[in-house]
Structures are given as structure tokens and as C-alpha cells.
Amino acid sequence: MFNFFKSKKSRPEEEKAVEKEETAEGAALSPQSNGEIPQDAVKTSLPAESEPVTAKSEVAQEETKPIGFAGKLRLGLARTRQNLSKQLSGLFGGGKIDEELYEELETILLTADTGVNATTQLLEDLRQQVKKKGLTDAADLKTALKESLVEMLKPLERPLDTTTNSPFVIMITGVNGVGKTTSIGKLAKYFQSQGKSVLLAAGDTFRAAAREQLIAWGERNNVTVVAPDTGVDKKNDPAAVIFDAINAAKARGIDIVLADTAGRLTTQMHLMEEIKKVKRVIGKAIPDAPHEVMLVLDANTGQNAVTQVKAFDEALDVTGLILTKLDGTAKGGVVAAICGQYPQNPPALRFIGVGEGLDDLRPFNANDFVDALFD
Questions:
Q1: What HEC string does 55-109 produce?
Q2: Taking phi first (over 0 means left), then psi (-120 to 50 degrees means alpha), and beta for anything else, what does residue 4 get?
Q3: Are the beta carbons of 202 and 172 closer than 8 angstroms?
Q4: pLDDT, tens only, 67-107
Q5: What is the pTM of this model?
Q6: Phi, psi angle pair for 347, to nearest 5°
Q7: Region label for 262, one of left (φ > 0), alpha (ψ between -120 and 50) or beta (otherwise)
């Protein structure tokens, strides 16, 4: 019923190509058999050799090579930072701290998609700091605002511990087009860098080319992909695909299973019920699985991301978040908006994405994030 795709070791040229691969969600590669085929696996051939790198691209690579993730984070948050700094620089340039200043700051925070709840919380904390520290000059509020924002975002900073179970099953979910499959490919690379073995489950049986797309990521990361059979007469149950993948991981001693699921709108109740079934079936394969329910969010959606967190959390008890595409939006304040929605116990923001490269998905750090928001 299902095919096991064990990828060959990828070449450096192919890893570079990944940055462009999944910006279009429908892109796919057709697997081809290669050499002897073991009974339980089908080996897929790699894409054709990349064209020679031009001198111009080599120069560009040399220029970008020294930039670490902190630098990429700063570059990725440039639009949000410019939006904030342009307005805050005038506000915090000097003068007295009064109600008019607080009102202007409230407007600035709301336009950065910080959300009403988070904005109210930040302003209350600022007022307390002003009173406690005896601040009188508006210039002092910038540091105070940064401190308040870090304190607010700290509860989101909870790194994922995958050592508690083996295999550790991560169920990936989200609405259509947020970048779930891309995130899975980058997560596979991240966990491999920690010395973990990874298996991918192609549980998105609805979207055209989703199967092939995940197999392509498997090739580039040199990991096994459990995928459904293809054909017009095939009706594949996503829960069954993931169930089979988990059993395969147990048999092979795999450390981490990344289970892809089909994108769905929060208003499509029948699809939300179906994904609940997927979670229940995962629990039949391993009683306490999935060990992580990770919701992928697109930062460009702003406040709508908060609505998605609420809907998926009610359906699946979301434990972790991935916030993608921060490099293409001025709405980075949505991170604070999520905190405002869950002031007591917000889902952990496990990873943030600030680019299309394989290494551009990293664990969230509140201090680094806030530093990148301000000049």
C-alpha cells in the first residue's frame, strides 16, 4: 500500500537548489528507480547535475557566507524594524512622558500587529517601570520597552526536547500555503545536525504534488520517506500513511518522525474533524503520541495567525509553533500578539523562519528577536 523512499546522499549543489524549490508549493520532482531495488524500498534518482556556478554567483556566496543566524534574523526582520524604528525614533527622541506619548505608542504597536491584548499589557508594564524607576524623559522608554517585550516573549522560548521518546513523533499542521512541507524539510536538516535519524511521513494525500515534494526533500536530506501509492484508483487515508510510517520508524530505530498533514482552513469543520482522527490514529501506533503537535504559521497573515492558533489549539491541543516568512513582512509584532492571546500558558514558539535557505529555520530566542526589532 505504501512506498518507502530511501534517498541517496545529496550533493552540495542540490542543497543550494533547495532555497528556490519550495517557494512555489506545487513544485515537484518525479522519482525514478536507480540500480538494484531492495524489497522494502524504492531508491529514487537524483536530479540532473546543476549548471556550473557563475563567477557572479560565487561572489554573492562569498559575501553572504559570513552572516550567521543573528545577522539573518536582523535582515529578516528589517521591514518590521524599519516600520517600528521610523515611528519610535520620533516618539522616543526626547520630551516628557505623558498620556499623549502613551497614546501614540499604542497606535505604533497596533500597526505592527502586536494586537490589543499584548499592546495593553506592554503599556501597563511601561507605566509600572516609569513609576518604579522614576523615569521622566521619553528617551528612556526605548530601553524600558525592550525589557518589557523580552519579558513578555520569554514564555514562548521553550526549545523542543526530542529525547523523551523514541521515535519522537511530530505532527505538522496548518492552513494551506503556510509552508508546512518546506518547514519539514528544514526541520529534517536541523535534527540531522544534532545527530538524530529522521523519517518523513507523506500524510498530505490531498494536495497535488505534495507526495513528490516531500520525497524531493527526503532526497536532499538523505532520509527515508514513507509515501502512499499513486494512481487514479488509489484512495489513500492520511492517518493510515502516518500510522505505517510510525511503525516503520519503530522497526528501524528511527529517532524522529515528521508527519506531514494536508492544509485546511479553520472554517472547514469536516476537515478539522478529519485531522482529529489523524491524531487519534497516531495514538494507536504509540499510546502517548504525537509527542508534539506543531502548528505552522505564516507571519504575513498578521492577526489572522492568532485566530489560527486558537482554532487548531482547540482541535488538537497545539504544543508548539513554527512562524515562517518573517523576512517578507512588516508584521513581526504578531509574536507578541500570540502571547497576548495566551497570557498564562502560550504554546511554545519552537522555530522561526527568516529565509529560504536550509539553515534559515532556527529555535526562537526572545532576546535575539527583540534585539533584531530595534536599531
A1: HHHHHHHHHHCCCCHHHHHHHHCHHHHHHHHHHHHHHCCCCECCHHHHHHHHHHH
A2: beta
A3: no
A4: 676 777 888 788 778 777 777 877 887 778 889 999 999 99
A5: 0.78
A6: -60, 145
A7: beta
